[in-house]
Every structure is written in C-alpha cells, then in structure tokens.
Amino acid sequence: MIDPENRTDPSSSSSAKDEARERTRQSAHEVKDAARQQAEGMFDQQKEVAANEAEKFASVFRKMAKEFDQQDQHYFSGYANNIARCTDAISQRLREKDLGTLMNQVQDYSRRQPAVFIGGAVAAGFLMARFLNSSNARNRDTPSFSTTSLSNEHDITNTPP
Fold this sequence. Notes:
Residues 1-44, 137-161 are annotated as: Disordered. By secondary structure, the protein is mostly helical. The chain folds into 2 domains: 18-96, no CATH class; 105-139. The protein is built from 5 helices and no strands. It has helices at 10-70, 74-96, 99-112, 114-141, 147-153. Helix 1 (10-70) packs antiparallel against helix 2. Residues 145-159 have low confidence and may be disordered.
C-alpha cells in the first residue's frame, strides 16, 4: 500500500534500509579483513626479528656453556646448553608457525602450566629490563663527538691564545 503523505511504498523504504545495513556490514567486514592482514604482515616481520634474536640468545648460552666447561663447571654448563636448545626450538617454531597457531599454543600452555608461564613472563621482563638498562648506561658512558668540543680543543680561528 502506498502512503498518501509520502507517496512511497513502505516496503521499498524498508528494502533501502536493509540494503544500506548490508553495505555497512560488508564495508565493516572488508575493513576488518584489511586490518587483520596488515597486523599479520607486521607480525610476520616482527616474528622474523624475534626468531633471529632468539638465535643470538641461544648462541650466547652456547658460548656460556663452553666457558663453564673450560672452567670445569659442568653443572652450569648443562643448564646453559639446555637453555640454548630451548631457545633454538623457540626460534624454529617462530619461523614455522603463523599468528593464530602461535597464539593458540601460548594460550594452551598458559592454561596447562600457569605458574611456569607467569614465571617465564616475569623472567623475560626482568631480562628485558636489564638489557635496556645496560644499553642505556652504555649510551650515556660513550663520549659523543661534537663540534663544540672540537673547536674548544683546536682553536680554528686565527686569534692568538
């Protein structure tokens, strides 16, 4: 039935609203997919960086184990070698798995071993803080080159001292 005031069919108005809702849903879905793809791309880049850093970390522990062996500290050497093997395994997993799989594995592990998971997170945070503090201290202790110090040491003007 046509509304005499508007002279439009109410069903066409409802249909237009439904189409607008559907277009809005479709646009939202496209934006969500684009954001997910961008996030996964960024994650893949960071995942490779993290895998490389994990390999470096494992290398440090292998060197540490070797030094412990040279000092007849076989007990500590064994722990350092175990940490190196675990870190290598983490690095390999990072390279092989996608974001969804890694997140599922982390969630499963945290449910099965919450104390170990929290302890590992605390230890990782502590190590990261130590690393950042030592990097920051190293940057402060390193003398920086500046033209003012150069001009003060070697007077570049032709005025007598």
